[in-house]
């Protein structure tokens, strides 16, 4: 029997802690509760052994073992260890991110009698008596009462058991430890999808007296055919406008005029299907898709680790290829995992999934409650859901019998977690596939340079889909030089004449247009004319954005006029005078999407305009409504931030405009060109996906920049060739490995002293094989009240970089620099 267990705890320390086994020996991969500096913490057992620690600390016992079997199989534990090592993150924090059950509500447990428990019950006291002798006679009797109560085999909640037998939870857990009872989470009883409340009009012959609000609700319901989702009802324009309180619906329910039904969540997509648009899986694959699928099918049949990079231009029909591959895996008895970007789990994607795979689907997205997440987690683990679709952290889903991983839009930056552990979901997925020895597919119209380099080196098999489906052309892209536009018109307008012409033409033809304005808010700089100062956030070294008050029923951002910091969320009233010099001459510069919408309304008074940004679209429900209004044609002119660029497949869109996407080219970030190229290509890719061809108008101040030139020609290969060269010259990824280290503290002197200390250490140590840039003030020197200095480390070899990071942490520890003061971002996407 092992005497000690090493437990990984969710604390910012890079090692597990040793505890004494106390009665039951937990298995590796199980959760336990242990004392830690005065608290009770939940951790995961990572090792069992008999080696007494020699560092002189008192070894405390494990307080409780929560699982009788491992929650994480050995592959996921291995994956966790890989992440901890590769990203230099505490294992306990990695595990916390992997296990939604770290938040599992323990009162939701059920107890069930085991075969062993039955034996004890039937074979009487004589066998058990010596073991139970430590218990009081009352407790011994209670144990029998509990076994009796559960004898039917139905699991019961602790509360039910208590009222029947007066037994508390401690006794139940003791019995579970003796394996007389089995403890299980309650989560498995609910439906695969979330339930959603539907308000139903009750037919009634009475003529009840109703107040105005009640009448409004009944009228709204009647207009919708007598049934409506409660959340849609609450958000309906009429009810919002008339400020009908939420309690009115409850009153109607009480009076039996409305009934509330529960139904599994569904996804509405407006008139999409009425127009005959098919789901991806309903198309017979064309020749290119068949070839792409065949390559993956061979890998599936053969088995074994094989990454594929599926480079397919926008609208080439990648989704149908994913589906076919997942179907093949399913037929071979294997489950699949499909990762999509944060915003990619749209109702359209979900609806296609359910249409193709029905109840086999589990969705894991960021808006699940901890309970819902735990519930899905159990379904997936039991093998009830064999098609798992989710955003970043779904890479950890405990998929039973996983046979294929697919990553859609693999270049998307939402796959990188921007807090500890700072893992990249794509790279973690590749590692998981490697550990499991299964194929993986990374798909994109604009593959990241990292993945492209891997394909060039032959590590990933490259599959190309160079054409759009049904011989549809890629849209023609026209560049508008905004400097020239200014010279010719003499005024500084948001929208160029050409963009206005093209948009008007699309609207006249009954088609749709989209315009990208990649900043939200009204004006993103407020500057004082007298002193030249920009109004900055109190917490961050960032200009504040001006937001106009929002009127109308559509947006729930009913927030008033304000300045807002887009990094920390801080808001303040709009000052009449400059906070620095008291001058009244405040200027509002830089048009955001809100201003864009206002201007478009003036230019196209007849257009049905919608805006898509984080102010108008906050939840999946918002996204669903917005997309359904686009699909149905209710909106024919959409303005928005990069949200509009991501994966949407709206067949009526023929004109796309791009306004001010190139200010990013001026940022101190070696990935700026790649990002602008991706954004331009993706947003252009929204045009011409239906029968009519698309046109794109790109307004730019850098018409000669290669990122813009290549994007305008749809020349990904040209772009990567050039960009790869630049990265090589400058020793940037993917030719080197890079890590950003930030020293951070609320005290400026502390942060700078720590940075200087670490800087000296790098110099004194000498760093063969490593380039160290810094210390320097981080581009955003103060963020959320924290001062930041940084280093950028570049190395030829990952091993060199990794070991120096651990050596640096040891040095910092010896110097008394706290771990929380050091942020390590391996393979950082942003150096800000
Ligand atoms: N074989 C086919 N024939 C006709 N239409 C198809 C075929 N396969 C897919 N489609 C349709 O083509 C459209 C584009 O497909 P899809 O959304 O998968 O493109 P994509 O490659 O993912 O593009 P993007 O990278 O822009 O998201 C969809 O409307 C889809 O239903
Ligand atoms: Zn701020």
Automatic annotation (TrEMBL):
What GO annotations for molecular function exist for this entry? Answer: 3'-5' DNA helicase activity; ATP binding; ATP hydrolysis activity; DNA binding; zinc ion binding
| Gene Ontology BP terms | DNA recombination; DNA replication initiation; DNA replication, synthesis of primer; double-strand break repair
A GO CC annotation recorded here is:
primosome complex
Do you know which Gene3D superfamilies this protein is assigned to?
Answer: P-loop containing nucleotide triphosphate hydrolases, PriA, 3(prime) DNA-binding domain
Give the E.C. number(s): 5.6.2.4
Q: Provide the Helicase ATP-binding domain boundaries.
A: 299-465
Q: Which UniProt keywords apply?
A: ATP-binding, DNA replication, DNA-binding, Helicase, Hydrolase, Isomerase, Metal-binding, Nucleotide-binding, Primosome, Zinc
Per its UniProt record, what Pfam families does this chain match?
Answer: DEAD (PF00270), Helicase_C (PF00271), PriA_3primeBD (PF17764), PriA_C (PF18074)
Substrates-to-products reaction catalysed: Couples ATP hydrolysis with the unwinding of duplex DNA by translocating in the 3'-5' direction; ATP + H2O = ADP + phosphate + H(+)
Q: Does the keyword Transferase apply?
A: no
Q: Where is the Helicase C-terminal domain?
A: 573-749
- Tell me its cofactors: Zn(2+)
Record-linked PROSITE patterns: HELICASE_ATP_BIND_1, HELICASE_CTER
Record text on cofactor binding: Binds 2 zinc ions per subunit.
Q: Which SMART domains match?
A: DEXDc, HELICc
* Binding annotation for Zn(2+) 1: 528, 531, 578, 581
Which positions are annotated as binding Zn(2+) 2?
A: 537, 540, 565, 568
Q: What does this protein do?
A: Initiates the restart of stalled replication forks, which reloads the replicative helicase on sites other than the origin of replication. Recognizes and binds to abandoned replication forks and remodels them to uncover a helicase loading site. Promotes assembly of the primosome at these replication forks.
Quaternary structure and interacting proteins, as annotated:
Component of the replication restart primosome.
Give the similarity note. Belongs to the helicase family. PriA subfamily.
Looking up PANTHER family in the UniProt record yields: PRIMOSOMAL PROTEIN N
Give the HAMAP family listed for this entry.
Answer: PriA
Q: What is this protein called?
A: Replication restart protein PriA
Organism of provenance: Terriglobus saanensis (strain ATCC BAA-1853 / DSM 23119 / SP1PR4)
């Amino acid at each position: 029997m092992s005497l000690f267990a090493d437990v990984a705890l969710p604390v910012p320390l890079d090692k597990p802690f040793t505890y004494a086994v106390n009665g039951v020996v937990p298995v590796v991969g199980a959760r336990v509760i242990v004392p830690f500096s005065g608290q009770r913490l939940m951790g995961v057992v990572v090792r069992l052994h008999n080696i007494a620690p020699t560092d002189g600390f008192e070894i405390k016992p494990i307080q409780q073992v929560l699982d009788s079997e491992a929650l994480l199989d050995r592959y996921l534990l291995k994956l966790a260890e890989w992440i901890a090592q590769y990203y230099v993150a505490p294992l306990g924090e990695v595990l916390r991110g992997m296990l939604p059950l770290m938040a599992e509500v323990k009162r939701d447990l059920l107890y069930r009698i085991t075969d062993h428990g039955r034996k004890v019950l039937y074979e009487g006291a004589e066998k058990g008596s010596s073991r139970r002798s430590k218990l009081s006679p009352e407790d011994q009797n209670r144990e029998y009462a509990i076994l009796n109560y559960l004898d039917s085999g139905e699991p019961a909640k602790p509360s039910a058991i208590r009222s029947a037998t007066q037994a508390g939870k401690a006794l139940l857990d003791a019995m579970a430890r003796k394996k007389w009872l089995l403890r299980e989470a309650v989560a498995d009883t609910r439906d695969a999808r979330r339930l959603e409340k539907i308000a139903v009009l009750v037919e009634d012959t009475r003529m009840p007296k109703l107040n105005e609000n009640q009448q409004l609700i009944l009228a709204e319901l009647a207009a919708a055919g007598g049934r409506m989702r409660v959340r849609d009802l609450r958000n309906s324009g009429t009810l919002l406008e008339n400020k009908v309180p939420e309690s009115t619906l409850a009153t109607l329910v009480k009076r039996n005029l409305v009934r509330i039904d529960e139904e599994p969540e569904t996804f509405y997509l407006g008139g999409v299907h009425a127009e005959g648009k098919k789901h991806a899986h309903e198309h017979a694959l064309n020749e290119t898709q068949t070839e792409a699928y065949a390559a993956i099918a061979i890998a599936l049949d053969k088995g074994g680790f094989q990454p594929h990079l599926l480079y397919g231009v926008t609208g080439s029909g990648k989704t149908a290829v994913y589906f076919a591959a997942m179907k093949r895996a399913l037929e071979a008895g294997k489950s699949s995992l499909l990762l999509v970007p944060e915003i990619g789990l749209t109702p359209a994607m979900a609806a296609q999934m359910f249409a193709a795979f029905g109840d086999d689907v589990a969705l894991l997205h960021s808006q699940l409650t901890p309970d819902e997440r735990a519930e899905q987690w159990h379904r997936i683990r039991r093998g009830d859901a064999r098609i798992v679709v989710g955003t970043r952290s779904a890479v950890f889903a405990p998929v039973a019998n996983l046979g294929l991983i697919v990553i859609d839009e693999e270049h998307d930056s939402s796959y990188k977690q921007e807090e500890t552990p700072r893992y990249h979901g794509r790279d973690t997925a590749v590692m998981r596939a490697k550990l499991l020895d299964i194929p993986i597919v990374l798909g994109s119209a604009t593959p990241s340079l990292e993945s492209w380099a891997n394909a060039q080196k032959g590590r990933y098999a490259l599959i190309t889909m160079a054409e759009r489906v049904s011989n549809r052309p890629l849209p023609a892209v026209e560049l508008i030089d905004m400097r020239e536009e200014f010279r010719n018109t003499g005024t500084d307008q948001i929208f160029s004449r050409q963009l206005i012409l093209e948009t008007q033409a699309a609207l006249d033809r009954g088609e749709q247009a989209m315009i990208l304005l990649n900043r939200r808010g009204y004006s993103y700089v407020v500057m004082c004319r007298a002193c030249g100062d920009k109004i900055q956030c109190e917490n961050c070294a960032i200009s504040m954005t001006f937001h106009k008050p929002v009127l109308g029923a559509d947006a729930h951002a009913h927030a008033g006029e304000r300045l807002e910091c887009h990094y920390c969320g801080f808001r303040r009233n709009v000052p009449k005078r400059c906070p620095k010099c008291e001058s009244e001459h405040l200027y509002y510069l830089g048009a955001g999407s809100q201003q864009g919408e206002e201007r478009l309304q003036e230019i196209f008074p007849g257009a049905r305009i919608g805006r898509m940004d984080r102010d108008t679209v906050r939840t999946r429900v918002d996204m669903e409504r917005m997309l359904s209004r686009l699909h149905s044609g209710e909106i024919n002119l959409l303005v928005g931030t990069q949200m509009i660029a991501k994966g949407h497949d709206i067949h009526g869109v023929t004109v796309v405009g791009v306004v001010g996407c190139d200010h990013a080219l001026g940022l101190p970030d070696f990935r700026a060109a790649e990002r602008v190229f991706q954004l331009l290509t993706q947003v252009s890719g929204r045009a011409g996906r239906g029968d009519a061809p698309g046109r794109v108008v790109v307004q730019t101040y850098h018409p000669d920049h290669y990122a813009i030139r290549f994007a305008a020609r749809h020349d990904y290969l040209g772009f990567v060739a050039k960009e790869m060269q630049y990265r090589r010259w400058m020793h940037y990824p993917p030719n080197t490995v890079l890590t950003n280290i930030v020293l951070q503290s609320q005290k400026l002197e502390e942060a700078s002293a720590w940075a200087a200390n670490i800087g000296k250490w790098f110099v004194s140590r000498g760093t063969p094989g490593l380039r160290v840039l810094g210390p320097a003030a981080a581009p955003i020197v103060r963020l959320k009240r924290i001062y930041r200095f940084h280093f950028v480390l570049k190395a030829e070899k990952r091993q060199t970089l990794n070991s120096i990071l651990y050596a640096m942490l040891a040095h910092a520890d010896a110097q008394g620099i706290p771990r929380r003061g050091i942020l390590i971002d391996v393979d950082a996407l942003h150096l800000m």
